[in-house]
Design a protein that fits this description.
single chain, alpha/beta, six-stranded mixed β-sheet, three-stranded antiparallel β-sheet
Length: about 240
C-alpha cells in the first residue's frame, strides 16, 4: 500500500467573520506519521475537517492519492445514548456493512473482518458487549477498529487516546506503527509530546496559523520547553511531556 502525500497551501478558514485558520502551509509525506499539536481551540480539528471536505476553506489542500483512496477516521469520542441496546457487533455492522441491513446481523465475511480488527485492538470477545457498558477507552478502541475495516490508505486521528488506559495506549501505538510500516499515511492530532517525539516522522504546531513544522527531533529540541510551553498556551507543560 502507498498512502497519499498531503500538501496544505495557504489554507484559511473564516466562520462568522472570525479567522479560525490563516495561511496554514505544510506538507505530509506518503506513509508518514504526522502529528498536529497546539492549544485547545487553535484550529487543529478545523484543519482536519477542511481536509475531509466538511468545512469550506480558502487556499488549497492537495492529496496525492494512489489507487486506494480510502480514509479511516477516529474522532475524539463517541457521542451516543448509552442506554441503547447496541452491541459492539451491531455498531460495526451499522458502520461497515453496506449491502446487508445491520438489524439482520453480520454476514460471515463481515464477522470475520470484525473479529480480526477487534483482536488487533485488543477487544476480541467483546463483540456481544453493549457499547454503553464499555469504558471510555474501550469505546475508543471500537472506533479505532471501525476505522481499520476499510483498509484505509489515509488514517485521521483526532486525539484518540484521551480516555485510554495504559494498555489501550500501548495497543493503539503498536497498531499505528504497524500501519505506517505498511505505507498508510497517518495524520494525528496529538496531545502527548512524549508520544510525538517517539513516534512521529514530522510534526506541525497549529495556533490559528502555523507556528512551526518539521521533524520532532529538530523543531521540538530547537524551541526548548519554555518556548514550546508559551506557544502552546499550556498551563502545565508536564501534561504535554510525560
Amino acid at each position: 500500500m502507498r498512502g497519499p502525500s498531503i500538501r496544505f497551501d495557504n489554507v484559511g478558514l473564516q466562520l462568522g467573520g472570525v479567522d479560525i485558520l490563516s495561511t496554514v502551509s505544510f506538507a505530509v509525506g506518503s506513509g508518514e506519521i504526522h502529528c498536529l499539536i497546539g492549544p485547545n481551540g487553535g484550529g487543529k480539528t478545523s484543519l482536519v475537517r477542511c481536509l475531509l471536505g466538511q468545512m469550506p476553506h480558502s487556499g488549497t489542500i492537495d492529496v496525492g492519492w494512489d489507487e486506494n483512496r480510502t480514509i479511516g477516521y477516529v474522532p475524539q469520542l463517541l457521542d451516543f445514548d448509552k442506554t441503547l441496546p447496541v452491541t459492539v457487533n451491531d455498531f460495526l455492522a451499522m458502520v461497515c456493512q453496506k449491502r446487508r441491513p445491520a438489524f439482520v446481523g453480520m454476514s460471515k465475511a463481515t464477522r470475520a473482518t470484525s473479529d480480526a480488527v477487534l483482536d488487533r485492538v485488543g477487544l476480541i470477545g467483546k463483540g456481544k458487549t453493549k457499547l454503553g457498558s464499555l469504558s471510555g477507552g474501550e469505546r475508543q478502541r471500537v472506533l479505532f477498529a471501525q476505522a481499520l475495516i476499510p483498509a484505509p490508505a489515509l488514517l485521521v486521528l483526532d486525539e484518540p487516546m484521551t480516555s485510554m488506559d495504559e494498555v489501550g495506549v500501548e495497543r493503539f501505538a503498536s497498531v499505528i506503527r504497524e500501519l505506517a510500516a505498511d505505507g498508510v499515511t497517518i495524520l494525528w492530532i496529538a496531545h502527548n509530546l512524549a508520544q510525538v517525539r517517539e513516534m512521529a516522522h514530522s510534526v506541525s504546531c497549529i495556533k490559528r496559523t502555523l507556528l512551526f513544522s518539521g521533524p520532532p527531533s529538530e523543531v521540538l529540541a530547537e524551541l526548548g520547553a519554555e518556548a514550546l510551553f508559551s506557544s502552546l498556551g499550556m498551563a502545565n507543560f508536564e501534561a504535554m511531556s510525560t
